[in-house]
Amino acid sequence: MKEKVNILGIPFIKTKREELTKLLIDKMDYQEKCFVVTANPEIVMHAQKDAEYQKTVLSADYIVPDGIGIIIASRIIRDYLPERVAGFDLMMDLLSEINKRKKKIFLLGAEVAVVKKAAQKISERFPQIQIVGYHHGYFQLDDLEIAQKVLHSDADLILVALGFPRQEMWISKYYQMFTKGVFIGVGGSFDVLAEKVKRAPVLWQKLNIEWLYRLIQQPSRWKRMIALPQFLIKIIWLKFKKNVRMRLNL
Ligand code: UDP
């Protein structure tokens, strides 16, 4: 069992991306199932407000820190997470590994043209991967047919790009139907694969300002991004209260 770091009630596993990739490949090799949430501060803040979503996130097998805000929070509380595990990078590492093993994937989410182009890009770049199906992400969550389509595809890896909270809700709703498959919510990753949205250049990623690049590209996200400062203020406030209590021996 991996060690965890609790951030506002969400237990993040202490792992590096490389180690996690190996772990997930093992799950596929043993035909086991696994639910991974790549959580950023927006997800943590949403879980604070929405009990059903919180329960869904907590039902995941692994919750990994996707966002520099989570890493900063772990430093503030002095329970260090080793590195950021961006959903897009995790997805690319997994695709590269499963290409060598000729495994099966299903892509669920994004617009019709986007998911189609993402599938095309994957088969060009990773020709050994078997794309056993794909479907756009604009359907009702209770559409059982979609889940059955995924089930019958017998995929080893199911990439769910419905954005949060929909993607985690979808996975948890149908997870019990499956006996195998690694399920990951990958947010806007198909948009990047299909070149609809550009990922921040490596320098921006290294400087930990990928969020700023995203904001410049999609200014309409500013409302959602308010969650980031709110999250950090909350972490600092809780830490301050804890320090005061310790000093006063309460
Ligand atoms: N999306 C979808 N169905 C929906 C809403 C969104 O498939 O009902 C897709 C959307 O087309 C995009 C992704 O989900 O590809 C959300 O991307 P975003 O960057 O907003 O991800 P988040 O930050 O929410 O993880």
From TrEMBL:
Pathway noted in the entry: Cell wall biogenesis; teichoic acid biosynthesis
A matching Pfam family: Glyco_tran_WecG
The reaction(s) this protein catalyses: UDP-N-acetyl-alpha-D-mannosamine + N-acetyl-alpha-D-glucosaminyl-di-trans,octa-cis-undecaprenyl diphosphate = N-acetyl-beta-D-mannosaminyl-(1->4)-N-acetyl-alpha-D-glucosaminyl di-trans,octa-cis-undecaprenyl diphosphate + UDP + H(+)
Keywords associated with the record: Cell wall biogenesis/degradation, Glycosyltransferase, Teichoic acid biosynthesis, Transferase
EC number: 2.4.1.187
Annotated InterPro entries: TagA_TarA (IPR034714), WecG_TagA_CpsF (IPR004629)
Record bears the keyword Translocase: no
HAMAP family according to UniProt: TagA_TarA (MF_02070)
Function according to Swiss-Prot or TrEMBL: Catalyzes the conversion of GlcNAc-PP-undecaprenol into ManNAc-GlcNAc-PP-undecaprenol, the first committed lipid intermediate in the de novo synthesis of teichoic acid.
Family to which the UniProt record says this protein belongs: Belongs to the glycosyltransferase 26 family. TagA/TarA subfamily.
Protein name: N-acetylglucosaminyldiphosphoundecaprenol N-acetyl-beta-D-mannosaminyltransferase
